[in-house]
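Thread: Newbie trying to understand structure tokens

Hi all, I'm a second-year student working on a class project, and my supervisor (Dr. K.) asked me to get a predicted structure for one chain before our next meeting. I've only ever worked with sequences, so writing a 3D structure as a token string is new to me. If someone could post the tokens and maybe explain what I'm looking at, I'd be very grateful. Here's the chain:
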Amino acid sequence: MMTLGTVGAFGFPDFPPPEVIGLYADAGCSVVQVYRNREKEISAAEITAVCSRLSVTIESLHAHFGDDLDPSSEDEALRTATLELYAREAEYCRQLGGRMMVIHPSPAHAPEGDLDRRYAQFKKSVEDFARLGERTGVVCAIENMPPYHPVGDDVKRLVDTIAGAQSEYVQFLLDFGHAHMTCGIVEAIRVSNGHLRHTHVHDNDGIHDKHKLPYQGTLPWEACGKELHAIGYDGVFMLEVFESADDLRRLLDDGWKRNIQAILNNGK
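---
Reply by user tm_fold:
Sure, no problem. This is what the structure looks like when written as tokens:
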């Protein structure tokens, strides 16, 4: 059986953590992935205190991302600077008590350049992430991206590159909404069979990366749930949704909870 979790946003005025995470906890979420505002200084102690009060466990950290962070950059200086920041993020993850951090393989709308060269650079970064994990004990989970990212939108190529490292410290995270915008979620689950370790779960219209609550878009949730169970996935079903507290109070109703439990429990 899968475990229900949620990404918890810290440092964003539209998503007050005690209120929003509390609503998700009431809906059955027991673990949290921390996502914090890069423009603000937020101590790990502040975050752990909030989660402790809400009786949810910090499982992981969504590491920083942005135009200046690119593990697949053809510019070796930029790639190296990116790795240095992720080494600091791994230490922050440890301070939170987390065991894993999420990494984007390339920034949005970056020039594609020589794509084969980009993937060669990304392969080097994957190997570096494996060594980082060996030093720190923190798993680097790399997620698939929407179609406007030069590296990461091709789920099979991303999975193959990650699997090539043969390291327990570099793993694949399947982002459902992003896959819905590229190859399709069912195909993405099939492609990642045997390598799927983590998830980001949200909905959209197949075109725009809206991060809506499941059943608020066009993603085929019943087929998605069946395919997850067909490959034996039993990890965290991690909601990465950015709805307001007012909307969550309306959307997280008994019908939604039943639908999600059916996915987690293979229709039971």
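A couple of things are worth pointing out once you decode it. The chain has a mean pLDDT of 97. The radius of gyration is 18 Å. Feel free to ask follow-ups in this thread.
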